[in-house]
Amino acid sequence: MAGDQRYDVVVIGSGPGGERGASTAAYFGKRVAVVERHRVLGGASTNTGTIPSKTLRETSLALSGLRMRKLYGVDLSLRREATIQDFMYSEQHVKSSEQARVKTHLERSGIDIYHGTGSFKDAHTVLVQDGASETLLEADVVLIATGSAPMHPPGFPFEHPLVHDSDEILTLECLPKSLGVVGAGVIGSEYACTFAALGVDVHILDGRSVLLPFLDAEVSKALEAAMVRLGITFHWGETVEECRVADPAGPMLRCRSGKELALGGVLVAAGRTSNTEVLNLGPVGVEVGERGLLKVDVHYRTNIPNIYAVGDVIGFPALAATSAEQGRVAMCHACGQPAFAVATPLLPTGIYTIPEVSMVGETEESLKKQGVEYVVGKAYARDNARGKIIGDDEGFLKLLFREGDMKLLGAHTMGERACEIIHIALVAMVGGHGAQLLFETCFNYPTLGDMYKAATYQAVGRANRHKIGVEIE
C-alpha cells in the first residue's frame, strides 16, 4: 500500500454531485478527499455530457447562422463545408477551462484529490487503485457520485467509427452527411438538433409516439414541430433490430417494422447505466437496483447509514443541477446540519434542444390527474419586444395557476434562453407566490422576462371571466 489516510468524508467521483458534496463538507470543517478514476476532474458533466454538448450546440448555432437567418430573413449559413476542427475547437476550450475550475475549487476548499479507481473494502474504507499503486482511505462518511455511462444495446457495432454512443460522438473526425439517432430522449433530441443546425440530415427513431413525454403535452408537440422545421425527421413506433455497416456505404438500420434507413452515421442514445460495477458494493451490503441504480432515502442515504449516493447513480432526473443540489443536501445531513439539509421538491428541467425547453412544477396533465382546478396564462415571444428584436418567432411562456388563490403551480417555456427564463417562475414558486407577486414585479424592458406579466394578466383575466360565467377563449 502507498499509505493509509484518515478522513471525515470520502467522495467517489468529481462530477457536479461529488464536487458540491465535497465542498459542502469542507465548508463545515470536515477533512475531505475526492477520488476520481480519470486524470481530469469534472465527471461526465464536464468531459462528455453537459458542458461539451451545450458548447457544441452553441457552436452549431454560430457556424450555421441559424439565429441570424431568423433575424434578417436571409440564409447566412457557412458557404464552405464546416470542418470538424471548426466544430470542436470551442468545445475543447470550454471543457479545459471547466476542468481547471473544478480542480481549483476543490484545492481552495482544502480537499485532497486522489486519481484512481475507488472501491469499498468495507463500509468505512475505500481502496484507491492507480496502476500498481494502492491507497486505503478510511472515512466516517462515504459519498458515491460516480455518474453513469451510455448503454450499449446489442446489435450495434460500436467498434465501428461510424457508430457512436453519446460519449464517442464527441470524437468525430468528420461531420456525416446524414445521422440516425436511436432514441428520442433528452440526449438524443439535443444532439439531433445540434447536427441538424449544421445541415446534417437527421433521422430520429424511437419506439414511442410522443417526444419527451414528461413535458407538458402542449410543449412536447410544439418542440416536435420546431424540430421538424429544423429539418429533423421522426420515425415514431420504430424499434431498431439491426445495425449493419458495409464500407464504404455506411450504416444501415433495420427496424422491426421492416423499414430500413441508409445513413452516414449512427448515434445510439438508448439510456444510461450507473457506474457502480467497480465499487465492490456487494460485500458492503449496499442495495443495487436495475441498471446499477442505488436506492436512497430523502437524505440520499443508502441502506448503509454512513454511505450516501447522489446524481446519475440514483436515477431520474440525473441532471447536473439536480445532482449538485443532491450532493449539498446529502453532506449537510451527514455533517449534522439539519437546517441546511432541506431538499426542495421544485427542481427545474432544462433541455438544450433548438429551441430550448424548460419547465418547473406541474403540467396540465398532472393537474388534471390530481383533480386540481387551474387557470392557464400564455405569452408569446413574437408579441414581446425583446422577442421581436432577437427574431424568436417560436418561443412562448405558459403559466399554470391554481384557480381561486392564483398560486403558481407550474411554468413551461420554449424558445431563446428558455432555461434562464424559467428561473423567475422557480423563485416565485419556491416562495409559494403567484399572480400577485408577478403583478408587483417590475421587469426590465425590453426583456423576455416581461412575458411573465403578459401571461399573468391573461390568466387573471380568464379566471375573472370564469367567475362571472363568461365564455373563456
What is the residue-averaged pLDDT? 91
Count of extended strands: 22
Distance between the termini: 73 Å
Please identify the top-level CATH class of the largest domain: Alpha Beta
Query: Quick one: CATH superfamily of the largest domain?
Result: FAD/NAD(P)-binding domain
- Write down the CATH topology of the largest domain: FAD/NAD(P)-binding domain
Number of helices: 14
Low-pLDDT parts are 468-473
The main sheet comes to: 7 strands, mixed
Coarse morphology: globular
C-alpha Rg (nearest Å): 24 Å
Q: Percentage of helical residues?
A: 25-40%
CATH architecture annotation name of the largest domain: 3-Layer(bba) Sandwich
The tally of structural domains comes to 3
Tell me what portion of residues adopts beta-strand conformation.
15-25%
| Class by alpha and beta content | alpha/beta
Keywords, please?
3 domains; FAD/NAD(P)-binding domain; 473 residues; 14 helices; 33% helix; five-stranded parallel sheet
Structure description:
The chain has 473 residues and is an alpha/beta fold. It has three domains: 3-150 and 273-334, FAD/NAD(P)-binding domain; 163-270, 3-Layer(bba) Sandwich (FAD/NAD(P)-binding domain), CATH 3.50.50.60; 355-467, FAD/NAD-linked reductase, C-terminal dimerisation domain (Enolase-like, domain 1, 2-Layer Sandwich), CATH 3.30.390.30. It is built from 14 helices and 22 strands. The strands form five sheets. Strands 1, 2, 3, 4, 5, 6 and 17 form a seven-stranded mixed beta sheet that branches. A five-stranded parallel beta sheet has the order 8-15-9-10-11, with helices on one face. A five-stranded antiparallel beta sheet has the order 18-19-22-21-20, sandwiched between helices. Strand 5 and strand 6 form a beta hairpin.
